[in-house]
Amino acid sequence: MTSSPAETIELSPETPMGDLMDAFPGARRALFARYHIGGCQSCGFSDTESLASVCERNENLPVDEVIAHIQSSHEVDQKILIEPTEVADLLKGNNPPAMVDLRTREEFEAVALPGAKFFGQELNQEIFGTWDKGTPIVMYDHTGDRCLDAAAYLLGHGFKNTRAMRGGIDAWSQEVDQKVPRYRIEFE
Fold first, then answer.
1. Are residues 151 and 88 in the same domain?
2. What are the tens digits of pLDDT across the range 46-103?
3. 94 and 147 inside one domain
4. N or C end: fewer C-beta atoms under 10 angstroms in the chain?
5. Distance CA 74, CA 143 (A)
6. Domain that holds residue 31
7. Is residue 186 part of a domain?
8. Contact, 51 vs 67, CB < 8 A?
9. Is the whole-model pTM more than 0.70?
10. What does the alpha-carbon distance between residue 4 and residue 159 come to, in Å, rounded to a whole number?
11. For residue 182, how far is the Cα from the chain centroid?
């Protein structure tokens, strides 16, 4: 298992929000859910703004409490993540997970993982309308940036066997199947 960026950063009041978001991918969701920070223009923040200044202008929140919340939320998020090699093993088993691809249709049509389904409005309706809430689901995107939030959303709606693949299809192509082409998107 690869070390997470959170293991290489010590949160402090001076931590820039950009560094915090890089190290703790679910931090925006955690901050918004508990403190209504970062979800809209009025409560947003810049990458260069310090955690202390964000806390100060949001009702003078205690920075230590916010740090503790981010760290505990991160621990929960780590349980949602699944390694690409673990996914590969599950796909070979008797009860393979439904693979849900969160990338754009163009990315999906260019390259996708075996048996993956494109996550659009139609699949979203199918999941909520007909899938059993015990269905094993693995969500992935390009680099793992968005799949954690999507998996947390399904988990929050009762799909208890939902996981997010760490590193996305890019990690898959490096760690599982090098025949899956890697690519870069300029606007990421």
1. yes
2. 999 999 999 999 999 999 999 999 999 999 999 999 999 999 999 999 999 999 999 9
3. yes
4. C
5. 18
6. 5-78
7. no
8. yes
9. yes
10. 25
11. 19
